[in-house]
From TrEMBL:
Residues 61-137 form the Lipoyl-binding domain. One of its GO terms (molecular function) is methylmalonyl-CoA carboxytransferase activity. Keywords: Biotin, Transferase. It comes from Posidoniimonas polymericola. This is Methylmalonyl-CoA carboxyltransferase 1.3S subunit. It holds the Pfam family Biotin_lipoyl. Its EC number is 2.1.3.1. InterPro entries: Biotin_BS (IPR001882), Biotin_Carboxyl_Carrier/Decarb (IPR050709), Biotin_lipoyl (IPR000089), Single_hybrid_motif (IPR011053).
Length: 137
């Protein structure tokens, strides 16, 4: 079987000998892996047509994971900036601080209306998931 292959803009004609009997495999289709075409291995499953791109909506604040009168870290990460201080009045869903995990910033919002008693973290501090960040009166 002769095939015409294009590699980085150059066209090559190659002759291929089929060594195994059976249904046509990847030689009749191709599998793209990280920008390279792979021939061999298992035949890829039929892919569904790609979904149309979704419109990007502004990110909602992450749930605080707060219970009772405190806000806990929803994920492990590093505190970027607390946006409230002790004595500040806050409203439900108000962003209290920004943290970063895996190069993504996450806003942590208040689960309740109240007054900040203590901010237990500072910029640059590493926190664990579930760690108390802010306490309310």
């Amino acid at each position: 079987m002769k095939l015409r292959i294009n590699v980085e803009g150059k066209t090559y004609e190659v002759e291929v000998e089929i060594l195994e009997e059976g249904p046509p495999g990847p030689l009749y289709g191709s599998t793209s892996v990280h920008g390279s075409t792979v021939i061999g291995g298992a035949t890829p499953a039929a892919a569904a047509p790609p979904a149309p791109p979704a419109e990007k909506a502004p990110a909602a604040p992450a749930p605080s994971g707060g219970s009772d009168r405190c806000v806990k870290a929803p994920i492990a990460g590093v505190i970027v900036q607390p946006l409230v201080a002790p004595g500040d009045a806050v409203a439900v869903n108000q962003v209290l601080l920004t943290m970063e995990a895996m190069k993504m910033e996450t806003n942590v919002a208040s689960p309740l209306d109240g007054k900040v008693r203590t901010v237990r973290v500072s910029p640059g501090e590493s926190v664990k998931a579930g760690q108390v960040l802010i306490e309310f009166e």
